[in-house]
Amino acid sequence: MTTSILRRRVAVPPPRHFMWFFVVGCSVLYAVADMIPQIQQVIRQFPDTGWWGLDADLVFQASRRWLDGQSAYADPSFVYTPLAVLLGVPATLVPREYVLLAYALFKVILAAVVALWLSRGSWLAVLGVLTFLPLINDVAPGNFMVPITAAMALATFGQERRRSGVPLGLIAAAIPKPLLAPYFIWLVFRRRKSAEGAFIAAAVVTGAAAIVAGPGTYLDWLHNLAQGNRFIWAWPGNSGVSAYLPGLAVPIAILVMALSVIVVLRAHENRSLAWVLAAGILVAPYAGPLAALPLLLTLPILRPWPRLYAIVLLQPVATLTVALAGLLAMCLAPPCAIVDGEVGTAKARGSPALAVLGPEASLADD
């Protein structure tokens, strides 16, 4: 009883509405200042650019090679699975610039829909998410972190059913990002049904892809994957652990994975979720700003004041060095997570999470 009274007395009051709007406004202004040069570059060079939609175009080029009877893995930099090659086949029927533009628009809409769902309809949250620089750094080069993060959101905050994990299984089977490894540990122990749905879906579509594309195609993929290290050092956008401590990147990844198992088994589910989302950045062989996108999923489970600080810090830190963003989030986010079953906690099965950015989230605090 004494502890409860003391806790109420020393508790930090929830942020006021004007604080939310001020912080989100500053975040948006920061994003706009950084985003305008990128948009100008896209408009100036569109459709002829080696930067706009580059990652998605790698898939479409592999699909074209496969349709032409060539090896989809003739390009040694292509490291996505044969399932990705098959999924990219319909895009080969449309001119490159239009399909890449449609894919970018799809990701913007998907991000907005997920933000509305998790925030219970807060357009302030949508504004914050759409101006989150890691999201912009995913949309522009045509990467896949937006659909991956959306699938993670469904598996994490959706109903405790196998179908909640199916989208994650499908995309992980096509785009197997190493940063998903810590999260899957959490999923197995904390969302067993979602994990089962993800694994079953991944196994089924992988088997189907092996039948259609041929088992040898998966051997070609493994060969490219094994040779992929040479492209890590040549990529100027890498700001992950391997960019700063190349000799220690593998030992650090192993240590973080081992600690992730311990945290998932011993910590509260929200604290362990915050840990694994950040840990994914540190175990990735290389990471750019877009690797910080899953950190948005920590916002619904943080108390209001830490959430406010996170909004302030995530923009500049993640865009300057994603390794530091991952380290800070892994150390600071778990202690700031909601663990006592307050209103809106992500523990509630089948119900939307707390407002991601909106002022109504302050109701969850003591």
Brief account:
The chain has helices spanning 2-10, 17-45, 54-67, 82-87, 96-118, 123-130, 133-139, 145-157, 166-174, 181-190, 192-213, 215-226, 229-232, 241-244, 249-266, 269-283, 304-320, 322-336.
Summarize the structure in words.
This protein has 18 helices and no strands. The protein is mostly helical and 366 residues long. The two termini are 15 Å apart. The chain has one domain. The chain is globular, with a radius of gyration of 21 Å.
> What number of structural domains do the residues give?
1
Number of helices: 18
Q: What is the CA-atom radius of gyration, in angstroms?
A: 21 Å
The oligomeric state is single chain
Q: Which percent bin holds the helix content?
A: 55-70%
Helices and strands: which structural class?
A: mainly alpha
The proportion of residues in beta strands is under 5%
Measure the end-to-end span: 15 Å
Q: Tell me, what's the shape?
A: globular
Layout of helices and strands:
Layout: H1 2-10, H2 17-45, H3 54-67, H4 82-87, H5 96-118, H6 123-130, H7 133-139, H8 145-157, H9 166-174, H10 181-190, H11 192-213, H12 215-226, H13 229-232, H14 241-244, H15 249-266, H16 269-283, H17 304-320, H18 322-336
Helix pairs in contact: 2-17, 5-6, 5-8, 8-9, 9-11, 10-11, 10-15, 10-16, 11-12, 15-16, 16-18, 17-18
Keywords:
mainly alpha, 366 residues, 18 helices
